[in-house]
Amino acid sequence: MVVVTPGAHLLPLWTLPDTTNTLVIMRLWLVILIVAEVSSFVDPPPLTLPGDVIIGMVGDLHDGEEASGGCGALNTRAVERVGAAQWALATINNQSQHDYTIGIRVYDACGNPDLAMRQTVKLLQEAQPPHPPLLGVVAFGSAKVVLGTATPLHAFNTPIIITDARAAHTVVPDDNVFSTAPHLTDQLQAVLSAGVRLGGGVIGVQVVCSCSHASLVLQERASRAGLRILNLLQIENENNITKKITHFINSEVSNGGVVILLLSAAELNIFTAEVDNQMLRKSRLRWVLTALDGEPLTGDLQEDQLKKKLDGGLLVEVHSPVIPGFSQYFAATVHANTSLVAPLAMQYMKIISHCDTEALAVQSLSPLPQCSGLQVKELTKLVNSNLTTATVKAVSSLAAAFRLVQIERCSTGVHCLQALRQDLHQDILKSLLKLSFTVGGGADKIRYTADGRLVNSFTIKQITAKGLRQVGVYREDTGVVWSPREMLGSEKLEYGRKGRTLGLVSIEEREKDSAIQSVLLTHEDYVGRTWAFSVLVVACLGVVVSLYVAVYVALRVCDGTLTGPQVLGAILLLGVMGLYASCVVYVLPPTSMTCAVREWAPPMCLALCYGILLVKSMHLRALVSVGVGGEVSQVNLHVSLLFMLSVQGALCVLGHAGGLGIGEEPLVKNGLNGNRQCGQKRIAILATRVYLILLLFLSLILATVNRKIQRNHNEGRWLLLTSCVSAPVVAVWSVMSYLAPSALEAPTTSVALLILASVILGLVFMPKMRIIAQQAKEFRHKRLATTSVSTIFTQMEEGPLGSVPALQEGLKPLSGDSSRLPHTRQDNIGSLRSSVSSQNSYRAAFSKAYGLPQKSPLNISRHVLRNNIYDASHGAFP
Predict the structure, then answer these.
(1) Whole-angstrom distance, CA of residue 574 vs CA of residue 49
(2) Quick one: which of 194, 187, 221, 225 has its CA closest to 287?
(3) Which residues pair with 479 in a beta bridge?
(4) Residue 788's pLDDT band (boundaries 50, 70, 90)?
(5) Cβ–Cβ contacts within 10 Å for residue 815, how many?
(6) Which of 104, 585, 588, 697 has the fewest CB within 10 Å, making it most exposed?
(7) How would DSSP label each residue in 44-60?
(8) What is the residue-wise DSSP string for 608-672?
(9) Whole-angstrom Cα distance, residue 69 to residue 72?
């Protein structure tokens, strides 16, 4: 039995997500809350800046201690990030017309993912009424800490913005995950552009990398651009890194080659300090280097060694403009002990300035200067503001998104905090995708892609004897923009660069080459792709045609042209429309919702369509067995269809909803091309595809058997033709799903679904539509031809009917009766008026003369209203 300790604040039930795992999530949160309450007395307290609404921050203010599991040394960069968040909120609150102030709560995880999860739960607890609502969470620190922070936020769809580059690559993408950290794909795209500028597009490039994931991304991007990677050296650790690179250069790299270094800042410093300068001069190599730390290199690299040994190379680093006024603001607040990080101020100053924090009484015993004696100007010079830009962008994004929600949700002004509480997080997530503004005095622009990535900029600098000189800027939505009149390569390489662009380099008139990447920033960009737009148009056209068929059949049923049960046909038409509609999710950005629809909708719709084809074949075969006049139970057919559909549903549940297995991918992942992709569960896909092939194979066999039946042979031929055409399409689609790259999964599947839906619509419904149209025309003509109606006697008067002799003289109408003269208008009208009154006497005389019973004309069924399709198939659709 679980007992909740006093003081535990359980989250209200209305905040729980509406999923099938609600009960499991409630139990999980109950355990987490109990653990959080028990351990609350040992967890670091939060740093709080009050406000009407709050932004949460969870990260590593202290390093972790592996031995004790507690908090270690202070992380000065993390302290500066918290100070940057306070500076951003102070600026925003001063410009917000004093309607609502935004506060902040900072929780220390100390490098422990479990502590990060507990601190996040506390943050969610303290954001419940009557406390101020939570706008979102800014996560900073190591990848494992960010992962622990994101786990509770996923369950409640709370916005989280990640500011660390390595953490942004490892966290599973979701609808609530955003990132202001530099994206690895963009960084490597800028590196390849720089390599092409130095001539790598002609002779190829050599790569040295210390990150396996970066190597995979670089190879994928180079393959797309047609850029050859001649050799790749993978560095596993820093031991003997210079020796390994030197051996690689001497054995694999030719003179004048282009070498790309993908190392950390520390590894780059080690290599430039230890490498032999004489060897570099002889090899005449051209260098492109970048740090995989995701942070600016200027303050970390040894610039003197770069100028001496890698002269002429290109350095690619993230564009992180200095925030004007932050260093002075932070130094002043720390010095005056009014900063949000005031409890950590003395320890921070001790680390960055190497001062002494002890009392004046022991000052004479310490050779270090007193921290209290530091001036604001001295402290300002020690603050590193280059690493705080990502945090400022994250806080500014949440504040701007909240402002948009205020404008959209508040009908009178912006003062409606109670109304904003409902669905606040969902509104914030939608508003983040709408942002487009500048931060830091116009220094940089805030714009997020459709999958939550901030569009970052990277500067390309040339290493010269005089220092680093910026020669280009790379941005995801514009590509590389080189500075005018910059000549980095020789003139004889110009032709080679023009000949090897392949989408990576765009040569424009009067401009230098610039790398242009096809990026997907918004939903419009996703739909704007050529294949995506084509799929969308064809899918919409297919849905419209299917709706037209449905309306036309419904009208024919209402006017009596089409009779009999039409349930299976209607369901098949719905399945075809479902196939067309499911193609739409393949042209939209991959999210948890669209990826789930991709996993469930196509296999279920295809199973429904092929199940109906199989049931129709079974129905035709059963009609042959029961013979003329026999009927087949419609209930049995529907039960069989329900069973077939249930099997496919069970396979989908076991494959997709049964959890991740060994080697399976998450629902949404980051692809090597930098865009989000839906994960593929191989076992689930294999099971559902095999079942579809089985249904199609059985339908093909029965349709082959039914091709020569006498009753409704056209129906059997249509089913056979549909099965024959669909079988190779399903087979090729299944093979492509396994062999083709994951980037081709969306276009391959969408095209296959369009073909399969069009085959069913064209080979099953269109021939039936033609027959229905012909039958409706004959039915309309016969209903309007009322002047041709005559009795059986007027027909028999002209001669014998079959084996029945002509009427005897006593039974013929009187010759003097003008109302009964044949082939005249009077005869037709008179026969109509007299047939009902004299039918009994005529029937009695007829029976007496010929010995054949004659039914009353009122009891004879009107064959003119019969449906040929229904008569031929005894209820088969249509």
Answers:
(1) 56
(2) 194
(3) 475
(4) very low
(5) 8
(6) 697
(7) PPPEEE--SEEEEEEE-
(8) HHHHHHHHHHHHHHHHHHH-TT----HHHHHHHHHHHHHHHHHHHHHHHSS---TTPPPSEEE-T
(9) 9
Lowest mean pLDDT among 27-31, 400-404, 434-438, 821-825: 821-825
Q: Dump the DSSP string for 568-602.
A: HHHHHHHHHHHHHHHTGGGSSPP-HHHHHHHHHHH
Give which of 185, 285, 181, 182 is closest to 225, Cα–Cα: 185
Model pLDDT, residue 772: 81
532: its two tokens: 């995506």
605 CB contacts (<8 Å, ≥6 apart)?
575, 578, 579, 582
Count how many Cα atoms sit within 13 Å of the Cα of residue 215 in the half-sphere of its side chain. Answer: 14
3-state SS assignment for residue 127: coil
Taking the C-alpha atoms of residue 327 and residue 624, their distance in angstroms, rounded to an integer, is 89
Joined tokens for residue 382: 């020690």
Q: Are 423 and 83 in contact (CB under 8 A)?
A: no
Q: Assign residue 669 a region: left if phi > 0, alpha if psi is -120 to 50, beta otherwise? A: beta
Residue type, 590: P
Residues 6+ apart with CB under 8 A from 781: none
Taking residues 107-115, what's their average pLDDT? 90
Burial of 592 (0-12, 13-18, 19+ CB in 10 A): middle
* β-sheet bridge partners, residue 460: 316, 472
ω before 130 within 30° of 0 (cis)?
yes
Residues in the chain, overall count: 878
- Which SS3 state, helix, strand or coil, does residue 470 take? strand
Rounded to whole angstroms, the Cα distance separating 583 from 586 reads: 6
The residue type at 215: S
Q: Which residue has the higher pLDDT, 712 or 116?
A: 116
Residue given tokens 């997907």 in the structure block: 520
Q: Which of 58, 168, 205 is nearest to 122 (CA)?
A: 58
Q: Is 196 strand, coil or helix?
A: helix
CA-nearest of 249, 244, 217 to 231 is: 249
Distance CA 142, CA 148 (A): 10
Q: What is the pLDDT of residue 760?
A: 93
Percent of the chain with pLDDT over 90: 18
Note the pLDDT of residue 495.
Answer: 36
Mean pLDDT in residue range 834-852? 51
Strands 160-162, 134-139: pairing kind: parallel
Specify which residues 102 forms β-bridges with.
53
Among the listed residues 779, 804, 781, the one whose alpha carbon sits nearest the alpha carbon of residue 793: 804
What ranges in 157-253 are assigned the alpha helix state H? 165-170, 184-197, 200-203, 212-225, 241-252
Distance from C-alpha of 445 to C-alpha of 458, rounded to nearest angstrom: 13
The pLDDT score that the predictor gives to residue 579 is 94
Q: What is the pLDDT of residues 275-296, one digit of tens each?
A: 888 888 888 889 999 888 655 5
Find out whether 305 and 278 touch, Cβ atoms under 8 Å: no
Please give the structure tokens belonging to residue 135. Answer: 């706008």
Token pair of 697 as six digits? 């194979």
Q: Among 221-230, 257-266, 465-474, 767-776, whose mean pLDDT is lowest? A: 767-776
Question: pTM score > 0.85 for this model?
Answer: no
Instruction: Give the separation between CA 167 and CA 146, rounded to whole angstroms.
Output: 6
- The proportion of the chain whose per-residue pLDDT surpasses 70, expressed as a percent, equals 69
DSSP state of 717: H
Q: Are 443 and 451 in contact (CB under 8 A)?
A: no
On average, the pLDDT of the chain sits at: 75
In this structure, the number of other CB atoms found within 10 A of the CB of residue 42 comes to 9
Strands (E), 292-373: 314-318
Omega into 878 within 30° of 0, i.e. cis?
yes
Take residue 150 and report the two structure tokens written for it: 């994101």
